[in-house]
Design brief:
Length: about 725
């Protein structure tokens, strides 16, 4: 519509007006480019996490080749610190694998012959030979990258802008056709009809609507930055107002992503510090094994005084499922310390007489609760005694339970989505207040609803992505909170993707919001600030419908009343510049966020705007009639009066629309008041000094302004029941 207006202005030789409209068009168009390149940034970050080279067996010899040159069937060597270059199946040897990038599981996995792992996994310990089963885009990692590339959801803001403009275009299009038809009946020359049509088109365009949506989101983003939340996509700020479901990853999001000693069950004759001290002897110092690191950290906090002195450390052996140490007691006697799987360690020990409770029962109970369980034994090499049982877990963040509770109070349902085992996931979910059923393992049902389950466990990246899409398909606005590359597709697909402060660069580039400090308080802050932003955008959208629904009709009624166009294109351009652009100050207004998720009800918004527009139409038509029939003004003076009354009516409806209750229920922002004063001064000065129009007496302008104030209070009384019925809140 703006482009059509530019062409008409040029045809009429109105180059200044055409240039002004072209600037407005360029301003709106340029805003779209700021959000480009997000998917490419995520893909680049994913690519940087892949192995660049691999050790492969070719022609009977081991050689290093670029990872891109690997093919299915190649034999590759996996060694300490290496990144797995493709999906593989181990054939010889054993390794400790960190698959958290793809599965989200924080605890590394012991892998031996026959075990299948994925591209992007990190070798924490050991060495093995593996056969490649998939490369490139066919790997699990490759499919993750493809999901990131294709993930897209149209924001509710985009749909709202399109719907509002479409409704206005259809409504005003009919008005313009009728206007042209009536002008033909009056036998107006084409030289008068074309400017009339141009004025009507300009009156129909909410020229600053897209820019206002962006500005409101930008101001919301600035407010969030002060609360340690960094928006990377402005649309995420708007969508935060509407999310009613939050999918939260477990590891690193609801939990600390740090394996820690949760409990120590010492056997008779031992205490916690002694059990931890013995376990620390049988743990590597400075290695990459997170279990050993957690045990040594716990032992350092509870130092035992009579520990034996380490002589030799033997690393973990996947075959025996144990690590051990040779030590000497203060008398110089040899001592053996063993740490490992409960069954393996218990088989080496002598039962302590009268031991209670049964250690095997304790171990079974801890494993059933989702803990990683290790047994510790110590004593002479031929007479080991079970010292105790250590339970390790990835504990919840301190603020996770409070987050879930506050989100629930805001009308947002949270569900856990994790690649971890169902038992472990259910334990953590209960600890943070997510009580409900766990979704059975297997493909995500396409018709699944968030109300059905509280936990979705054993989910791979494509599963998280599918779950977000399934929730969106059922009409929900979805937020996704995660920290790993495995979360990237879902973060990209969700309307509001949130990466926690400890997230990988992949997750941060895929998300729309990044928390910049530990903790999850930024999620609640984002929801609240999003709802403030929504209310400001809703007010401007309502204002746009109000203005644009009556201005074209006013032109038609003015044509019927006077037989001529009551506004020129230049006057309408001035109204656009002052009213629409200064009206963007609504993005700073003082508003009340709603207690529940917001939703764009375009039908109700349009009806409410048309109601307010018709009210403004009645007021403007009455003032124009007084000018023509009582004051006897000529057509040029009537055009000035029409210009003034439109500006004043727009200001009146701005203040009635901004407050869903009575006009005096809240104080406008300083920027809004200042912009209104500027708008009124510009219109009054132009009208009284006769700039770009015929002059009007100061008294006439003042009386029109006073009438507009009275109109604002009268329409405010009629507005409240209409807004309540249409649920404009």
């Amino acid at each position: 519509m703006l482009e059509a207006a530019i062409v008409l202005e040029i045809v009429l030789g109105k180059y200044v007006e055409a240039a002004i409209i072209a600037v407005l068009l360029a301003f709106n168009a340029a805003l779209g480019f700021f959000q480009e390149g997000r998917a490419q940034a995520t893909l680049a970050a994913l690519k940087s996490r892949l192995a660049l080279n691999a050790s492969v067996r070719r022609d009977g010899a081991w050689t290093t080749v670029p990872a891109a040159g690997l093919v299915v069937g190649d034999l590759v060597k996996l060694s300490l610190g290496a990144v797995v270059a493709a999906d593989v199946r181990l054939t010889v040897g054993s390794v400790l694998l960190d698959q958290s990038m793809l599965t989200g599981e924080s605890v590394p996995i012991e892998a031996g012959a026959g075990f299948e792992t994925y591209a992007g996994a990190l070798v924490r310990r050991g060495e093995a030979v593996a056969e490649i089963t998939a490369t490139g885009a066919r790997t699990k990692f490759g499919r993750t990258a493809e999901l990131v590339r294709t993930a897209h959801v149209e924001s509710s803001q985009q749909k709202a802008v399109l719907s509002v403009v479409r409704n206005l275009a259809l409504f005003n299009g009919v008005v313009i056709v009728v206007l042209v038809g009536y002008a033909r009946v009056l036998k107006l020359p084409s030289g008068e009809i074309i400017p009339l049509v141009l004025t009507a088109i300009l009156a129909s365009i909410p020229v600053a609507l897209p820019a206002t949506f962006t500005l409101a989101a930008a101001l919301g983003a600035r407010a969030l930055a002060k609360l340690d939340v960094l928006p990377t996509r402005l649309s995420a700020v708007d969508e935060a107002a509407s999310i009613d479901v939050l999918c939260a990853d477990k590891t690193g999001t609801l939990t600390q992503n740090a394996l820690t000693v949760t409990a120590v069950h010492a056997q008779p004759g031992f205490d916690e510090s002694h059990v931890l001290g013995v376990a620390a002897l049988a743990s590597s110092d400075g290695g990459q094994d997170p279990v050993d690191s957690a045990i040594r950290a716990a032992a350092a906090k509870k130092v035992a005084s009579d520990l034996p002195k380490l002589v030799k450390f033997t690393p973990f052996d996947p075959g025996t499922k144990m690590s051990e140490a040779t030590a000497s007691d203060p008398g110089g006697a040899a001592i053996r310390a063993v740490k490992g799987a409960f069954a393996a360690v218990a088989a080496l020990t002598q039962s302590a007489p009268g031991a209670a409770p049964d250690p095997s029962k304790t171990a079974d109970e801890l494993e059933a609760q989702g803990f990683r369980v290790l047994a510790v034994a110590v004593g002479p090499p031929a007479a080991l005694k079970l010292a105790g049982i250590i339970a390790l877990s990835d504990p919840p963040r301190p603020d996770s339970a409070a987050l879930i509770t506050e989100l629930r109070s805001l009308g947002v349902r949270a569900v856990m989505v994790t690649g971890d085992a169902p038992a472990t996931a259910a334990i953590v979910a209960h600890a943070v207040g997510l009580d409900g059923k766990t979704c059975p393992p297997g493909p995500i049902p396409t018709d699944v609803r968030p109300e059905e389950f509280a936990v979705f466990a054993g989910i791979l990246p494509e599963g998280k992505y599918d779950l977000v899409k399934a929730f969106q398909k059922s009409g929900h606005i979805v937020g996704m909170c995660g920290d790993g590359a495995n979360d990237a597709p879902a973060l990209r697909q969700a309307q509001m993707g949130i990466a926690v402060s400890t997230a990988t660069d992949v997750a941060k580039s895929a998300a729309g919001l990044v928390l910049t400090k530990p903790g999850l308080g930024g999620i609640v802050a984002s929801v609240k600030e999003g709802r403030v932003t929504f209310q400001r955008i809703l007010t401007y959208a309502l204002n746009s419908v109000t203005k644009k629904s009556f201005q074209a009709l006013f032109l038609a009624l003015g044509l019927v009343m006077t037989g001529q166009a009551i506004l020129t294109p230049m006057l309408m351009v001035i109204i656009m510049l002052t009213g629409d652009l200064l009206g963007m100050s609504l993005t700073t207004d003082n508003v009340r966020p709603s207690p529940t998720p917001n939703a764009w009800r375009i039908g109700s918004l349009t009806i409410a705007g048309v109601f307010m527009g018709i009210s403004a139409l009645v007021f403007c038509t009455a003032v124009l009639a007084i000018g023509k029939f009582r004051l006897g003004l000529g057509i040029e003076a009537l055009r000035t009066l029409a210009f003034v009354v439109i500006v004043f009516a727009n200001q009146a409806t701005t203040y009635t629309n901004r407050e869903r209750r009575r006009i005096w229920s809240s104080r406008p922002s300083r920027w809004l008041i200042a912009s209104s004063v500027v708008d009124l001064l510009i219109a009054s000065t132009l009208a009284t000094w006769g700039i770009a129009m015929n002059p009007l007496p100061v008294l006439t302008v003042a009386e029109t302004l006073l009438a507009a104030v009275v109109f604002a209070f009268l329409v405010d009384f009629a507005k409240v029941p209409v807004f309540n019925r249409l649920k404009i809140a």
